[in-house]
Amino acid sequence: MWDDNKFRMKPLKPRPPTPGHGRSNFEQMENRRDPSQ
User: Fold this and answer.
1) How far apart are CA 36 and CA 19, in angstroms?
2) From CA 35, how far away is CA 31, in angstroms rounded?
């Protein structure tokens, strides 16, 4: 069971921002959705 947990925790690790798409795109979309921020 602990083995499964290891695999599950792997994707939870913080990943480096990928250029082009990823968090950048998501952030841009959020900004458009929330013009008040």
Assistant:
1) 26
2) 6
